[in-house]
Design brief:
Strand order of the largest sheet: 3-2-1-4-5-6
Radius of gyration: 21 Å
Helix content: 10-25%
Strand content: 35-45%
Oligomer: single chain
Length: 302
Amino acid sequence: MTPKRTVLITTHTGRQAAVDSARLVIHRLLGAGLHVRVPADEAELVAEPGAEVVSASAAAAADAELMIVLGGDGTLLRAAELAREGGVPLLGVNLGHVGFLAEAEVEDLKEVVDRVVESHYEVEERMTIDVVVRVNGTVLARTWALNEASVEKRDRMLEVVAEIDGRPLSRWGCDGVICATTTGSTAYAFSAGGPVVWPEVEALLLVPNSAHALFARPMVISPRARVAVEILPETSAGVLWCDGRRRFDLPPGARVEVTKGEIPVRLARLLGAETTGAPFTDRLVAKFGLPVEGWRGRVRNP
């Protein structure tokens, strides 16, 4: 007997539009014969009769074919914490402001459900970063990020030294330093003046934030590099944020080491739809409202 296809639904329950959208998605998936799971902390608002209520942990995604996420990029980053270990693909429906990680907008919701039911989607892997915090060689924390690991000041400016592959690069007095993936290039790194990098490129980004130095440009580094940011002992304490969700205090003398992640995050991309699955160039144009009037495309011979 062929097991039922299982889809996990998670949503931004603080937005009524997201709650309404989640209930519509669940209703349509159940009607199509799919098995639907809902995290327990969301079930009271979104669960439809027939949906399975599961604990809000990584076990919720076990054996799931797909995880549909309704909300903004923050909601998808939260969902990635549940889906990453099991390799479950995430399909984001944007109800936020920018939503670079999302595959579709809320107005395309019915079409999204149809594509999922028909299995008309493919899966791509996005590079993550592994992060280790040390003080005098002792490991204080281990974590990971899809977008970025950001070393930030708590009150006064930080004095840091950046290191690449075991060699010192530069010392900065700054508000912080962002170590980002190319997926995260359009997030915090972009706000700090970093470059936009197409997500299929595997690279690490190093972006000093408000640095008082002549050489403080954003840098694109090999994905095989080992990046470290050391907070000098004589400076103030800092804080490490990973994807804006996981926080770690950094005492003076702390060292944050960043390498390519062992486990990627998998994202679902829809197939056969005109309004979804847009190329990254089209996403940039749409999200930032970039002017493209006058473009004629490739000139073709009659």
